[in-house]
């Protein structure tokens, strides 16, 4: 499979925006502190990412699929911690 320049650009952009979540995920899992994170924002964000993932599958845009699958995993882990945080 040969990648064209637009798809390569898509994968680079996807990698940068997706992996930007890693420091937040690591921090939240280490400290278990999600008090400063908005539940509404993360719930909406996860739903939006899920819809982008479905869209990417429907139109077979693999940079969109891969990026949103990984982003959904990372953002959902933060949402999970937020929902299970003890007061």
UniProtKB/TrEMBL annotation:
Spans through the membrane: 6-27, 39-58, 64-83
Compartment(s): Membrane
Protein name: SemiSWEET transporter
Gene3D superfamilies named in the record: 1.20.1280.290
Organism the protein comes from: Limnobacter profundi
Keyword annotations: Membrane, Transmembrane, Transmembrane helix
Membrane topology value: Multi-pass membrane protein
């Amino acid at each position: 499979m040969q990648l064209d320049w637009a798809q390569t650009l898509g994968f680079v952009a996807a990698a940068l925006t997706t992996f930007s979540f890693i420091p937040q995920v690591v921090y939240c899992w280490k400290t278990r502190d999600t008090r400063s994170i908005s539940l509404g924002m993360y719930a909406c964000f996860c739903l939006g990412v899920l819809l982008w993932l479905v869209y990417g599958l429907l139109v077979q845009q693999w940079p969109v699929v891969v990026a949103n699958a990984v982003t959904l995993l990372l953002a959902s882990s933060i949402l999970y911690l937020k929902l299970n945080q003890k007061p």
